[in-house]
Structures are given as structure tokens and as C-alpha cells.
Amino acid sequence: MNPNAINFYLEQAREIIGDRSQGEIDYDNAVVAYLAGGKDIKTAVRSANQEHPEEAMKPDANQWQDFAARYDYIMEHKVIMKRLGMKE
């Protein structure tokens, strides 16, 4: 694969996902794991909140669609990173 394309993708991903603390990464990983296990976004966030109360999120009713899109993106990002043989 083209290194320039990979670097461009990685820059875009950093902008979309943003800087995260280790606690935020762990929380995001928990949400992704619950989604991958078949949970819906609300259940995944509630479960991650119990697992990581210090990072707990409580979205408003109008934010759930954005949360779902964010975690769909993070799930796809993890797949891409694995295919590239890279760690976050």
C-alpha cells in the first residue's frame, strides 16, 4: 500500500477521533467491544459506563446518532489498523 495514502489516512483518523487519554481509549475500546458483541449503542455505552465510571458518558437523546457514528468509525479504524499491522 502507498505510504502517502497510509499517512493521509492516519492524519484524518487522528483529526476525527481526537486526542484521548488512556482512560478514554479504554472506555472507547469497551464500547467497541460491546458493539462487536451485538449490543446496540445505548446498551454499549451503559455497559462501558459501568466498567469505566471515571469516563462515563451520558449523552442527551439527540446525541445518540452521533455516538453511533463515532463508534462505527472507531470500529472500522480498528479493523484498518489491524490490516495494516499497526497499533493505535
Q: Sketch the major β-sheet.
A: none
Average pLDDT rating? 95
Order of helices and strands: HHHH
Give unreliable regions as ranges. Answer: none
List keywords for this structure.
88 residues; single chain; mainly alpha
Please tell me about this protein's structure:
- The protein has one domain.
- It has helices spanning 3-17, 22-36, 41-51, 64-84.
- It is elongated.
- It is 70% helix and 0% strand.
- It is an all-alpha fold and 88 residues long.
- The mean pLDDT is 95.
- Helix 2 (22-36) crosses helix 3 and helix 2 crosses helix 4.
- The two termini are 18 Å apart.
How do the strands and helices of this protein lay out in sequence?
Blueprint: H1 3-17, H2 22-36, H3 41-51, H4 64-84
Helix pairs in contact: 2-3, 2-4
Concise account of the structure shown:
The chain has 88 residues and is mainly alpha-helical.
